[in-house]
Design goal:
Distance between the termini: 17 Å
Radius of gyration: 16 Å
Structural class: mainly beta
Number of strands: 10
Number of domains: 1
Strand content: 35-45%
Number of helices: 1
Shape: globular
Oligomer: single chain
Strand order of the largest sheet: 1-2-3-6-7-8
Helix content: 10-25%
Length: 191
């Protein structure tokens, strides 16, 4: 049965990627791979990442800004400040089953995902209030999880993109890539 679920999830992701590559970056459309679209917009593209880890799903919604020759780290995105990790509204992460992040149990639900970029270390934040505009309403008191991660050098990714990457069993990771940086953190669905 698990091989059938894996096959189904691979087919579903392939279909989404193929469909996403034919989309144009237009207002209102959700793009599942902002780096494959014919990008005619200077605006941030409404984007999403969806995937299975084991047999459980994770859905991330965000706005994907482009590099467009700008200085991103320490420029457009300041070091040491809470960042929406996208553009416009807070990036949201949603899952229907409890998830373990950094040994902390996060109940099923919808949350805001923020980061605090740094030159050597980033902080990934899961915050209980998902309906926020940028980080202007962010309140540390509403954090569920904070986890420190090391940024890695990466090939140029023109538009910010989220990835949900399955691993063994009910474990996997969530990754974020933009410009020449990639961060990732492990997640495990509670059995």
């Amino acid at each position: 049965m698990s091989k059938i679920n894996s096959f189904f999830s691979i087919c579903l992701m392939a279909l989404l990627l193929c469909a996403g590559s034919n989309l144009k970056a237009q207002s209102g459309e959700v793009c599942y791979n902002p780096n494959l679209v014919k990008d005619t917009s200077k605006r941030s593209i409404k984007s999403a990442a969806a995937g299975l880890i084991g047999s459980d799903s994770i859905h991330i919604t965000y706005h994907s800004p482009g590099v467009r020759g700008r200085i991103i780290w320490g420029g457009l995105v300041p070091f040491g400040e809470v960042w929406v990790t996208g553009a416009h509204d807070a990036t949201t992460i949603e899952f229907k089953k409890a998830l373990i992040i950094d040994k902390k149990l996060v109940p099923a639900g919808k949350y805001a995902l923020f980061t605090i970029p740094g030159k050597v270390e980033w902080t990934v934040i899961i915050n209980s209030r998902w309906q926020q505009h940028l980080a202007s309403e962010y309140d540390e008191q509403e954090d569920i999880v904070r986890i420190a991660v090391k940024p890695k050098r990466h090939n140029l990714t023109e538009r910010l993109q989220y990835y949900i990457e399955p691993g063994a069993g009910n474990s996997g990771k969530i990754a974020i890539a933009w410009e020449k940086i990639r961060i990732e953190f492990p997640v495990t669905f509670k059995k």
